[in-house]
């Protein structure tokens, strides 16, 4: 049975990166957060989530993001935007 959770991921660490690397760093922060909290190495970010992270460009990232995360029985994790 799939396990589903809602998380608010703080993206403060991405603000410490150089301006031209902030959004790529935010993607890494989300992946690291999900690895730590969902105990899985196989993490997939939904296209809608990726678009939300990138909507303000590479230099201006969001301060935090709310996610709906689903862990399948095989251990794979998929993250979506929480509506």
How do the strands and helices of this protein lay out in sequence?
Layout: E1 3-10, H1 12-15, H2 22-38, E2 43-45, H3 47-54, E3 64-71, E4 77-81
Parallel strand pairs: 2-4
Antiparallel strand pairs: 1-3, 3-4
SSE order, as H and E? EHHEHEE
Number of extended strands: 4
Structural class: alpha+beta
Strand order of the largest sheet: 1-3-4-2
What does this protein structure show overall?
There is one protein chain. The chain has 83 residues and is α+β, with helices and mostly antiparallel strands. It has one domain: Ribosomal protein L31 (Ribosomal Protein L31e, Chain: W), CATH 3.10.440. Helices cover 35% and strands 29% of the residues. The chain has 3 helices and 4 strands, in the order βααβαββ. It has a 4-stranded mixed β-sheet with strand order 1-3-4-2. The chain is elongated and about 40 Å long. The model has no long low-confidence stretch (mean pLDDT 96).
What is the gist of this entry?
The chain has 83 residues and is of the alpha+beta class.
Features:
29% strand, elongated, alpha+beta, Ribosomal Protein L31e, Chain: W, 83 residues, 3 helices
């Amino acid at each position: 049975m799939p396990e589903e959770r809602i998380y608010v991921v703080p993206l403060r660490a991405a603000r410490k990166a150089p301006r031209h690397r902030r959004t790529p760093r935010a993607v890494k922060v989300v992946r690291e957060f999900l690895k730590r909290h969902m105990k899985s190495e196989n993490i997939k970010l939904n296209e809608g989530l990726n678009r939300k992270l990138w909507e303000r460009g590479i230099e201006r990232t969001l301060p935090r993001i709310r996610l709906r995360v689903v862990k399948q029985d095989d251990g794979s994790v998929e993250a979506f935007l929480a509506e």
